[in-house]
Amino acid sequence: MTTPRQPPAGALVVVTDLWPWETTLSAREIPGVLLAGSPSTTVGGFCNRTGKPVEGSVLVVEALGPELYKAVIASSAVICSRGGRTGHMQSLCRTRGIPVLRVAPSDLAEVSGYVTVSADRQSVLLGDAETPARAPDSPVVTPGDLGSICVVVAAATDVRTINTLTPRVEQVESFFIREEFLCLSAGLSPLDALRAGAGEAERYGAAVAAELCALVRELLPGQRIVMRLLDLRSDDAARITTEVEVDHEPNPELGLHGARGLLNEEHYPRAFGALRAHVRERLGPQAARVSFAVPFVNDQDEFLRLRRHLGLPGDLPLSVFVETPAAVHSAAGFCAAGASELFVGTKDLTQFYLAADRGNHLVAPSYQTRHPAVLDGLRQAVESGAGAGTPVHVFALGADLDHYVAHLPTGRFMMCTAELRELARRELAATPR
């Protein structure tokens, strides 16, 4: 007869329907890499491996994708084994303040039961226990040091979160949202709708507009919302498209999406026209607080072709996302072609300047948002806009904000909701009473 194995001293015993020593789990810490931070240093919860939304759970998945949208926003934290810091879903989590921790694939299988994700230690503790905290680095820059802030949001609740901060962050002049996030929030499948004919495309546009109007209703006087037009890569599209076939691309990041994708969608102009008409009908004069930005566009010719494809009147403002080296060199051309603003997408720009996939953790050491080449590109875009009198907004991760403020000739920045909220909280805590 075999003698039952006894739990080692100091082990965490998890009580289940088995004998305790048969399910003994050492209360150990698994190291990882923090892909998205959180205002809280530690977040605990029971693991959820179903891919379905379970409120307050810790979502455990191999990799994040748009099909997990509802599961992600219901989660208190995410643990994965693939992905980089600036993937689209990681950006969603950063906006919401949901920590994302990447662990080794061999460790992911061990993550079960109740776990605690430690943002400051970049680790996960198996079991219900506390981890010793490390003091976070204090940023030097405060919201008051910035001239203008455009807040990256994923839903109307994020706008409300920023506008109810006490004291109010007066520098917040605008909010930015991706059309894809409005689609995911409303349960829409863009390609299914756009390729089902003009009527379905128009219904799709009206549904996106309804989501957009909900954001506008949360705005304070003097604020506005900028919607980045649909930019759905084929690999992401394949995960949420059910009625039509999505072409397989060997390198979706460099494939048919952004401006070139919109030019390829026959019925997107009908969808966008319905969106604008619905916004005007619902908001009346307040519709002027909504503007639009072209994603993933290389030069002014492509920008003007898209304007014509969408059938836009000449007086309708349209801004540009600068996120490729070609777009940096075309910044002055965009301004000359009538772009109302430039938004510099640092995350994509970094990966294209350095040939380092932002979603591939194997090349993470090469993905450097402060690389001299990246900073030179950011500076060139800012100076081109300044020369033309066109506002330029630079996206900054919280960890880069101090560095960017010190090295770029601009006071206009884009920030995620949770990172701005934390910056405002620290500024308040440091204010003498």
Automatic annotation (TrEMBL):
<dbReference type="InterPro" id="IPR000121">
    <property type="entry name" value="PEP_util_C"/>
</dbReference>
<keyword id="KW-0418">Kinase</keyword>
<dbReference type="InterPro" id="IPR050499">
    <property type="entry name" value="PEP-utilizing_PTS_enzyme"/>
</dbReference>
<dbReference type="InterPro" id="IPR040442">
    <property type="entry name" value="Pyrv_kinase-like_dom_sf"/>
</dbReference>
<dbReference type="InterPro" id="IPR008279">
    <property type="entry name" value="PEP-util_enz_mobile_dom"/>
</dbReference>
<keyword id="KW-0670">Pyruvate</keyword>
<dbReference type="GO" id="GO:0046872">
    <property type="term" value="F:metal ion binding"/>
</dbReference>
<feature type="domain" description="PEP-utilising enzyme mobile">
    <location>
        <begin position="55"/>
        <end position="106"/>
    </location>
</feature>
<comment type="similarity">
    <text>Belongs to the PEP-utilizing enzyme family.</text>
</comment>
<keyword id="KW-0460">Magnesium</keyword>
<dbReference type="InterPro" id="IPR015813">
    <property type="entry name" value="Pyrv/PenolPyrv_kinase-like_dom"/>
</dbReference>
<dbReference type="GO" id="GO:0016301">
    <property type="term" value="F:kinase activity"/>
</dbReference>
<dbReference type="InterPro" id="IPR036637">
    <property type="entry name" value="Phosphohistidine_dom_sf"/>
</dbReference>
<feature type="domain" description="PEP-utilising enzyme C-terminal">
    <location>
        <begin position="216"/>
        <end position="392"/>
    </location>
</feature>
<dbReference type="Pfam" id="PF00391">
    <property type="entry name" value="PEP-utilizers"/>
</dbReference>
<dbReference type="Pfam" id="PF02896">
    <property type="entry name" value="PEP-utilizers_C"/>
</dbReference>
<protein>
    <submittedName>
        <fullName>Phosphoenolpyruvate synthase/pyruvate phosphate dikinase</fullName>
    </submittedName>
</protein>
<keyword id="KW-0808">Transferase</keyword>
<keyword id="KW-0479">Metal-binding</keyword>
